[in-house]
Amino acid sequence: MKNDARKLSTEEQHLIRKIAVQRVHDGESAAEVTRSFGLGSRTIFTWLRLAREKGIEALAPKARTGRNRTLSNLEEQEIKRWLIGRDPRQHGFDFGLRTRQIVADLILERFGVALSPSGVGKILHRLGLTPQKPLRRADERDEKAVQEWVDDVYPKVKKYDKKKGAEIFWLDEATIRSDDPLQRTWSEKGNTPVVTTSGQRQAINAISALSNKCGFWYHVFDVKI
Fold first, then answer.
1. Which of the residues 23, 134, 165, 199 could staple to 138 if both were Cys, CB 3.0 to 4.6 A apart?
2. 74 Cβ partners below 8 Å, 6+ apart?
3. What is the DSSP letter of 181?
4. How wide is the angle at C-alpha 151 spanned by C-alphas 148 and 152, nearest 5°?
5. How much is the pTM?
6. Sheet-wide strand order for 204-211
7. Which alpha helices (DSSP H) does 84-174 contain, by range?
8. In whole numbers, what is the pLDDT of the chain averaged over residues?
9. Helix axes 117-126 and 100-111, enclosed angle (nearest 10)
10. Are 205 and 221 a contacting pair, CB within 8 Å?
């Protein structure tokens, strides 16, 4: 369904243009952005051409900096879109935690509004976001392979275990690392974020195995396996 731009203020029209083009630059397809904003089929391409020729600021109203400016509802919802399901590294930052300062920097860069970290925190809380400790997940993890193992392989293993009277062991490796553990990051309440990290690091290791029948074995070593 197309939106009637005539019902929007000039500033709102300009803001939608800037956000739409920025979303394409961030990796979304033109078709997805068009559906999201209810644009005409060729509208986004006109905006993209203008941004390419004159810069993205040509699409936006004049920036109004200062701590007294209140962000519009559209701007606040765009901030939420930056955070949900995305990684700060996709916006050019060096690490994967969504801090209030990172959000403040993005607001200043994209909306021309300078906010303090405490002011950003109030906005994030209003959007239903809370600071959470994310789950650590290796880049090498293959979600499809994991689900296939859960759905297809493990049921067969359980059946074989029961038939042969064997034991199933769950093995994992814990490490004492020199790098810091993950701190907190902002995300939607009740939805724990995931931060991908490298699974390659040097450490003192403790490898252990726990069976379904409560057996437990472990070994500590300082070589990499």
1. 199
2. 12, 15, 16, 19
3. P
4. 75
5. 0.41
6. 169-176, 204-211, 216-221
7. 100-111, 117-126, 143-148, 154-164
8. 77
9. 90
10. yes
